[in-house]
Model the fold of this input.
Amino acid sequence: MNWIDLAVIEGRCNYVEDAIEVYWPGTSITFNIKGESLKLQMSDDVGESEYLVLVNGIEDHQFIVDKDTTYTVWKSSKVEEATITLHRLNDFSKGTTKITLAELNGDLLEGYRKQKVITYYGNSITVGYANKDTTGNDNPLYTNNYYAYSSLTSRRLSAEQFVIARSGIGVMASWGDYIMPQIYNRVNPKDATTKWDFNKDKTNLVVINLLQNDAWLRNYPDLEQSLKWFGRQQVTDQDVVKAYQNFILNIRKSHPNASIICVLGCMDIVKEEYNYKSIVDQAVSEIKDERIYRLDFPYLASNAHPDIQMHKEMSDILVDYIKEHQLL
Done:
């Protein structure tokens, strides 16, 4: 049996013979092993993709895949049973990683597959951008999705996760090359021909946290990125309502059986003087779908992206909301 069939893989990946390609933050591969060591052959087209290794659920080490190398992911002095997880920490812009099993000194056992699935569509907040930067400088080198509210929530609810997120992305505008309506349905976010098969998707709950970047770019119409996406047109609140509605309707079509939570925060988009809570309220109410819910995180991150403590607060709020409304 191919190793891919025995490993537990969470996230949208491309499968190429005996290898997988990893793109999205929060993607994980779990090996249940009885043996002494595990080596993986890993290559990356950019060389900045970062991974965390967990052994029996405990953080062990992390590393950057900077070239085509055989990595000793785990090694023991004796034959033992162990669960080894590889968790992608950062954005897909940092590289596509190709992974194959190089050497296993022992046996690979079939792993446990979770019964519930959450799919997140989001921006840097969902990625966990710079959440480990304690200086407030928003350094992307300190991005750690394992401690993003998305992954924290999934672990607390024992749910499989798909994190479809990119730092800087929005619904109408972006700091990069894509907006979410262009890539939400892709396996490889950089390849429009790789479509995700939603017919096989088992998502129970969708969490959407977007519009923060749209809000920023609307405020600075002369920026290069604003001109790229908006041109010189005056973008109204009703334009945003319509664009958000269209995206939500596409998500509903893609996930017909899932509950959907439309979230805002925890950056300045939820400040009272801004109108985005009302914009999303209107967009959701006009759709008239009783399985689409609304939740706002408080304004926590006033100086930079949210840190790990703020992500824990967001996860607490989200978990409580999911449990209260019995959404999973």
Remarks:
- The two ends are 33 Å apart (CA to CA).
- The domain at 3-109 is CATH 2.60.120.260 (Jelly Rolls).
